[in-house]
């Protein structure tokens, strides 16, 4: 079998099964594990999969920068954001992540809502200027321009005196065994710190982020108490998450 054909078969199996194991691939194709590892490296460099110990997982397609993602109108995004916005109640302290779905969530918060929103996203802060009863605490730090959020030691230090009721997290990958992940190391640290300062974490995840992984792990799946997904999401994607003890809400 040609290398090109073998790679095509690997991707087909990955799409079908949600993961591939190097040892099993080696036996299936009758080649060495070194050959399989080379195939996986090359496919990973093309962004077609995410290598993990012993094999590979589907790569998250959610890698475009904020400006590109913001230009894409999405009924799904609005639906997920709407369900999340209804979860916020008067008097809470809420941490709101960066990202286009989170911006849409901020937009859908009721004008009469009396609450405090903590965010490291200037975009969220600006969106909430028109909500007169929402107090906004903007966390400073180094600006990560790809996602328009602050990251780094200064941002994490600013969290030290905050104890929130709930954190609404954006991710690029949600996987039953690989956990929650994102495409930038400093963002991963920041998201983990935000989760540590909230009583519960709610993940906002469109179906393209489910059963997928990115390079940097935020934490185990159980870091989230709830995941909000689009209504049309196939149960084959959500059942493994629910089996891990996470509440799934369809928007």
TrEMBL record:
InterPro entries: Carb_Metab_HTH_regulators (IPR050313), DeoR-like_C (IPR014036), DeoR_HTH (IPR001034), NagB/RpiA_transferase-like (IPR037171), Tscrpt_reg_HTH_DeoR_CS (IPR018356), WH-like_DNA-bd_sf (IPR036388), WH_DNA-bd_sf (IPR036390). Keywords: DNA-binding, Repressor, Transcription, Transcription regulation. The keyword Oxidoreductase does not apply. Residues 3-58 form the HTH deoR-type domain. It holds the Pfam family DeoRC. GO terms for molecular function: DNA binding; DNA-binding transcription factor activity. This is DeoR family transcriptional regulator. It comes from Halovibrio variabilis.
């Amino acid at each position: 079998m040609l290398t090109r054909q073998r790679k095509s078969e690997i991707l087909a199996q990955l799409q079908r099964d949600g993961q591939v194991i190097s040892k099993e691939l080696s036996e299936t194709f009758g080649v060495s594990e070194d050959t399989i590892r080379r195939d996986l490296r090359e496919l990973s460099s093309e962004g077609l999969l995410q290598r993990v110990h012993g094999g590979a997982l589907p790569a998250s397609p959610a890698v475009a920068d904020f400006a590109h993602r913001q230009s894409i109108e999405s009924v799904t995004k609005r639906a997920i954001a709407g369900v999340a916005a209804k979860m916020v109640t008067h008097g809470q302290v809420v941490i709101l992540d960066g990202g286009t779905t989170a911006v849409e969530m901020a937009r859908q918060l009721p004008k009469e809502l009396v609450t405090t929103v903590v965010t490291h996203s200037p975009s969220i802060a600006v969106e909430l200027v028109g909500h007169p009863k929402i107090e906004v605490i903007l966390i400073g730090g180094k600006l990560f321009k790809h996602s328009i959020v602050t990251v780094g030691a200064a941002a994490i230090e600013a969290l030290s005196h905050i104890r929130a009721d709930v954190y609404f997290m954006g991710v690029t990958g949600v996987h039953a065994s690989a956990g929650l992940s994102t495409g930038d190391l400093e963002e991963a640290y920041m998201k983990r710190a935000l989760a540590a300062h909230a009583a519960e974490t709610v993940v906002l995840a469109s179906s393209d982020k489910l059963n997928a992984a990115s390079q940097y792990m935020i934490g185990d799946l159980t870091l989230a108490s709830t995941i909000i997904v689009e209504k049309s999401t196939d149960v084959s994607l959500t059942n493994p998450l629910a089996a891990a003890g996470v509440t799934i809400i369809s928007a």
